[in-house]
Amino acid sequence: MINQFRSLSPFNLLLLAAYTIFMRLAIFIHLPDPLSFEFLEPYAKLLIQIPIADSFSPAINIVLAMVVTFVQALLFNRIINNHGLLAKPSYLPALLYVTGSSLFLQFLILSPPLICNFLLIWIMDKFLKIGKTTNAMMTMFDIGMIIALGTLIYFPFIVLLLMLWLSLLLYRSFNWREWIAGIIGFLTIFFFIAVFYYWNDKISQFYQIWKPLINKFPSALQINYNDYLVLIPIGVIIILAALQLRENFFRSFISTRKAFQMLFFMFVIVIISFYTKPDFRVYHFLLCVPPGAVLLAYYFSNAKKRWFYESLFAILVCSIQYFLFV
Question: How far apart are CA 287 and CA 37, in angstroms?
């Protein structure tokens, strides 16, 4: 499977589509109860009404989620290949994106983080471009607006504002205009929302939007570790990828090194952003899939021993399927 996806053969598109369906067999066989899909956060519904929360049957919900994941995988694949983050262009990023998006049952349904991954992939593309432009001010402004749009869909997306400054530290020398451009872009969206709240005499509710930012980070989490055993193969691959990356680090282009540092920070930030959502669900960690899939693809792109990396991927897929069915 891995060796096949190391090429850009058009036939791999059909294989990827079949693989995407295969990774969702468990939920198709055992359809869940009726699902409620909330496209926007409550504070955005005053401005925009999208009455689709209960419009889809479980089967349609899952099929739409599958189509969304497949499209995201193709967009993600194109961006990673365009920026040359792997040894050579391939369909490995798309393969690992679909794999990462199938880890848990909650990943297989329509959810706000799944929709936000379109925006996250878009942001990744823009961050990877800022080191190649003479003036990043407009790019940072655009990223700020994209983060604001994502925050309307799923509030923890706001924590990605930290990536504005981390990316500038990695890629560019200090320019105060670039440092504030992203925040201005973010505030532009919320300025219009504040005006709308004011016109409707609900400005006090607007202030409540920001309260989750001062939530205390939980000191203890109730975790059923049996539900997360599927992450063991993922952890092994990430460790091997990190060792591979360290070995090749100073032989890589400077832009590639900075790209992986940026993706690492993004991965960490989206993990810790769950604290802004007291009732967060497992599907929150779908936001980790784009940056995480790059690291997984990096390992499989550079691995040498075919019998080992093919066996490792087979173990990963079998583990996912086992834990989806049990």
Answer: 17
CA geometry: angle 254, 255, 261, nearest 5 deg: 90
User: Which amino acid type is present at position 12?
Assistant: N
d(CA 77, CA 92) in angstroms, rounded, equals: 8
Residue 121, H or E segment: helix 112-129
What is the reported pTM?
Answer: 0.91
Contacts of 57 (CB under 8 A, 6+ apart): 34
Name the CA dihedral angle for 28, 29, 34, 35, rounded to a multiple of 10 degrees: -40
Residue of 129, 123, 146, 133 lying closest to 82 (CA atoms): 129
SS3 51: coil
By three-state DSSP, how is residue 6 classified? Answer: coil
- Measured from the Cβ of residue 325, the count of other Cβ atoms closer than 10 Å reads 12
Radius of gyration of the chain (CA): 20
C-alpha closest to that of 31 among 115, 109, 119: 109
226 pLDDT tier (thresholds 50, 70, 90): low
One DSSP character per residue, 217-255 reads: PPS-----GGGGTTHHHHHHHHHHHHHHHHHHGGGS-HH
The model's pLDDT over 142-170, given as tens digits with 9 standing for 90+, comes to 999 999 999 999 989 999 999 999 999 98
Please give the Cα distance from 260 to 258 (Å, whole number): 5
Q: What does the angle CA 324 – CA 22 – CA 1 come to, to the nearest 5 degrees?
A: 110
Count the alpha carbons within 13 Å of 292 in the hemisphere toward its beta carbon.
Answer: 25
